[in-house]
Amino acid sequence: MSIDISNYNREADLMQDEIHLLKKSLVELKNNIDNHQSIPNDDSASALNKLVVENTKLKHRLAVLNRAVAELSAKKTPVDNTRMQSINDILTDIFSTAISRAFPDLTDPPIVIALSGSNPKFGDYQCNSAMPLSNIYKQSGKKVAPRDLGQKIIDNVESHEIIEKLELAGPGFINVYLNKQFGLKNLSTIFVHGVNPPQLPRKLNVLVDFSSPNIAKEMHVGHLRSTIIGDSICRLLEFLGHDVLRINHVGDWGTQFGMLIAHLHDKYPDFHEKSPPIGDLQAFYKESKQRFDEDEDFKKRAYASVVKLQSFYPIYKKAWELICDVSRKEFQRIYDRLDIKLIERGESFYQTRMEAIVKDLQAGGYLEEDEGRKVMWGSQGGQNIPLTVVKSDGGFTYDTSDLAALKQRVDEEKCDWIIYVTDAGQATHFNTLFGCARKAGLLTEKIRVDHVGFGVVLGEDKKKFKTRSGDTVRLLDLLDEGLKRALDKLKEKEREKVLTPEELKQAQEAIAYGCIKYADLSHNRNHEYVFSFDKMLEDKGNTAVYLLYAYTRIRSIARNANFTPEKIKELAKTCQISLDHEKEWKLGKVLSRFPDVLLKITKDLCLHHICEYMYEISTTFTEFYDSCYCIERDSSGDVVKVNHGRILLAEATAMILEKCFSIIGMKPVSRM
Ligand code: ARG
């Protein structure tokens, strides 16, 4: 029987909305209470009293609603057998039901589920809610030992196929042991249906604004980081089934175009008939900048050109397009090599929208005069700096285009989630932007916005990343060096003697681009990051090369036993993954965490979690392979026995690893 869950979904959505509103009024009430000034003095006592009563009522309603939502969501998700399930979600459901049953008096009880760590003595997962619960009771004057609360939780857990046993430990931890039969069922889905994403409540419209270099300027390593991180976020969200718009918000509309156009005019007067041979846009930029700084008359013409361009004067627009084209081709070479897809929608796209939003903000009274500029504050006071919405010469800025872009993304693209990937130095800009947008009502609480910042790239000398001669590193040169170093590495191992030229080239590219991407993604993005080919190309530790080799080794197991992918699919119909041996079960449990790793990244957008996970898969696989024979051979090397259940486990490992590779934008090879 199939259950129509759309009604539940709708009901749950409505409730979520209502809860949201209630939570907001609670916050407002609390603010009012905290902020006595807003209550007229004479009535203050009775007003306060009224608020407290109101508050208690609301809290009670919130508790009722929360419980109803919990029940609904438990009902609304009939298990989908075509995908692996999130263990974290299941355990969270189980324990939140148990906890609200055990403590019906609490409004929003903490549900704390964690992995148990490496010591098998503590089970596989833990529910650590008893300690914070005890604190909550303590605050309201009731003293209860966390251990007693832990026991009460256990008593209220209903039996579930995922749980083998529960154990109360230490001051009140609840150790959870997973059930093997469940693990087996969960993992086996991938042989029938492939590696699918976990089930999500709904599909979102997501816009990821990444890469975003500036026209006529060098695309630098900061943009490379944004490109790699942004692409991986897109790949993850696409895999999860969301609608993802990959936007390249290129800087194509600044005042620098005035001088570029004026210079183009002088240097190639026939540019509108014959495409000008600008090979080196950087040099062209430098020339025009020099004239701009030295020649007053040129400067005036440059300013005049910007104004004409921004009102779309055809010949100026043509000149601008020519310049953009040169840059665009350069950028594209990098995107092609790294296999990155982007839709270009630069600052210029928002010109008319900027004009409109300035009018709106002006009319709404949001703009303040400041020495001829018009600024907008995100929030008042502190060390905040405002957005500059209109410059004193009437021109628009980076801030104006971001305001207009945000509005376009919300109103026209109907985004549920907008993600900006830039260096951490722009965090203040984005926080102020979000603050202003909320203030002006462009952004509501239902829309999620994230600034995904990252640290600066340093050279091996821990100083700003530069070439030996002190110039900025050209990205194309960097990729070339990666290719060269990767080939050296392969030759060092004499792989050119075993691989076909085609295989060698594939391995070279997999290593070169893979190591650059992996080194970036495997570090916590918030930290600064040292760019070192030597480190990236190491074949030990958590590196791309190690993982690429691990993957080929795992893939070769089935191949050596003459199992084609089709044959494995057949095999999976009659034979089960083997999970009996301690090391098999350990690997099985790591693989079962795949959905949870992905879901975790959707929360903090930190991709090093998936890299750490891939490394953990590889090392756990090695442990398994060292103690469990998949294929047994006799002394002459002939295969005498194949352990089919283990072949399946190895294959499941390869399949999940492969999916991880694709999420981080790496292309593993089957031989290298
Ligand atoms: N072009 C900018 C830079 O190079 C990055 C743009 C990021 N996106 C945005 N919507 N502000 O720093």
TrEMBL record:
GO terms for cellular component: aminoacyl-tRNA synthetase multienzyme complex; cytosol. Its EC number is 6.1.1.19. SMART domains: Arg_tRNA_synt_N, DALR_1. InterPro entries: aa-tRNA-synth_I_CS, Arg-tRNA-ligase, Arg-tRNA-synth_N, Arg-tRNA-synth_N_sf, ArgRS_core, DALR_anticod-bd, Rossmann-like_a/b/a_fold, tRNAsynth_Ia_anticodon-bd. Residues 89-178 form the Arginyl tRNA synthetase N-terminal domain. It is found in: Cytoplasm, Cytosol. It is an enzyme of class 6 (ligase). It catalyses: tRNA(Arg) + L-arginine + ATP = L-arginyl-tRNA(Arg) + AMP + diphosphate. Residues 5-75 form a coiled coil. Keywords: Aminoacyl-tRNA synthetase, ATP-binding, Coiled coil, Cytoplasm, Ligase, Nucleotide-binding, Protein biosynthesis. GO terms for biological process: arginyl-tRNA aminoacylation. PROSITE patterns: AA_TRNA_LIGASE_I (PS00178). PANTHER family: ARGININE--TRNA LIGASE, CYTOPLASMIC, ARGINYL-TRNA SYNTHETASE. HAMAP family: Arg_tRNA_synth. This is Probable arginine--tRNA ligase, cytoplasmic.
